[in-house]
Amino acid sequence: MEQSPELVLGNVFVRPNLGYMTGEVCDGHAHNFDHVTFVTRGSFRIDRSSPDGRVDSLIVGGPGSTAYNGRWFVLIKADCHHKLTALEDHSDFFCVYAHRDPQGRVIEYYDGWMDAYR
Amino acid sequence: MCELLLRVTDKVNPDFYMNTKCTKRGDVVVVQPDGWVWGERELTLPFWRILKAPGASMSAGETFLAPELDTDPQNPSRTLQRRAFGFNLAHPSLPAALTAYLVDDTRAQPAYTLAQSFKDTQLLAVKVTKPPIVDPGVIG
What we know:
- The complex is a heterodimer of chains A (118) and B (140).
- Chain A has no helices and 11 strands.
- By secondary structure, chain A is mainly beta.
- In chain A, strands 1, 2, 3, 5, 8, 10 and 11 form a 7-stranded antiparallel sheet that branches.
- With 140 residues, chain B is an alpha+beta fold.
- Chain B contains 5 helices and 6 strands.
- The longest helix of chain B has 8 residues, at 96-103.
- Chain B starts with a strand and ends in an 11-residue tail after the last strand.
């Protein structure tokens, strides 16, 4: 797994997570706001624990992966605890967030309020 | 509700790329909550100032700390600045007493307290986006 720089791409913030090998885990965590996770290579099992108590797992495979089933991205709601486990070598995923101001409102530009992406 | 340590003169490095990573005039070095006990150097050195903003939130203050981020994944930049945003030290809304404090290198007054009416809106109004630094090693 490699540490890749986070990016401001226009009106969204992107956090790449690259090079996961089979079994490597992105530890369980939750975010302040909704965000979308795209699996661009390989596949992951995503274990989710929603604030309302629901617990489930889903497999998300990137295009070209044997696990690919037409769905290669997932919306992860705010405060939903989630953990990603790579199911094959060289798996990558990107997390995409909206920019927000310190009041939590969606804005079109990078404002420097890093809690929008945490 | 926050206190800002502000740099008023550029820190420089003879290496061009290292220099882009140094804090510059107008950069906020750190943001602390109200009542923070600042160190002796922070209270006395001529290139720093302490602004106390009891009416502004920590969240608003901390937006000044954000780094400049890459915008082109195909062409990562070597000139990303330590701070993406600066405090406009010449903003017309700043009181004359603050302007005088900012130019006084003797630090006779260790810190300046902004009015309670100086809220998030006023603080964010003096925030400026710093322009990207063009890499002289990139042609075209």
